[in-house]
Amino acid sequence: MLYAIYCKDKPNHLQTRLDNRPAHVEYLKRFTGQHVCTGPLLTEDGQGMIGSLLVMEFADRKAADDFAANDPYAKAGLFESVTIMPFRKVFP
Q1: For residue 51, which of 12, 10, 15, 87 has the smallest C-alpha distance?
Q2: Can you list the positions of beta strands (E) in the chain?
Q3: What is the pLDDT of residue 92?
Q4: 87 and which of 4, 61, 64, 79 could share a cystine (Cβ 3.0–4.6 Å)?
Q5: Is the dihedral of CA 31, 37, 41, 42 positive or negative?
Q6: From residue 59, how far is each of 2, 55, 65 by CA, in Å?
Q7: What is the pLDDT of residues 7-61, one digit of tens each?
Q8: Is the Cα torsion angle 83, 86, 88, 92 positive or negative in sign?
Q9: Are 74 and 19 in contact (CB under 8 A)?
Q10: pLDDT band for position 69 (50/70/90)?
Q11: Which domains does the chain show, CATH number per domain?
């Protein structure tokens, strides 16, 4: 099943994001075949990163929860909130 994982960064935590980005990217590479759409959420001007949006395939909700909890960003305390919802891809 597909799950959308919407993560909002804590205010003033850009350095935490930057410091942990290499570990985060390496973590994502372990799930290569499961990504539908993955990337950072940006500020209105498109210049700053303020969160993450991942749409990924998981066997079940527990697997999605485990993935999100073990993300290096989450372990570093970057996120103010994480919302995980089942998702259905319609287009394209």
Answers
A1: 10
A2: 2-9, 35-42, 49-57, 79-87
A3: 85
A4: 4
A5: positive
A6: 9, 13, 11
A7: 999 999 999 999 999 999 999 999 999 999 999 999 999 999 999 999 999 999 9
A8: positive
A9: no
A10: very high
A11: 2-87 (3.30.70.1060)
DSSP letters spanning 48-59: SEEEEEEEEE-S
Q: What is the mean pLDDT of residues 67-76?
A: 98
Report which residue type is found at 41. Answer: L
- Evaluate if residue 88 carries a pLDDT over 90: yes
Strand order in the sheet with 2-9: 35-42, 49-57, 2-9, 79-87
Token output for 16: 């935490």
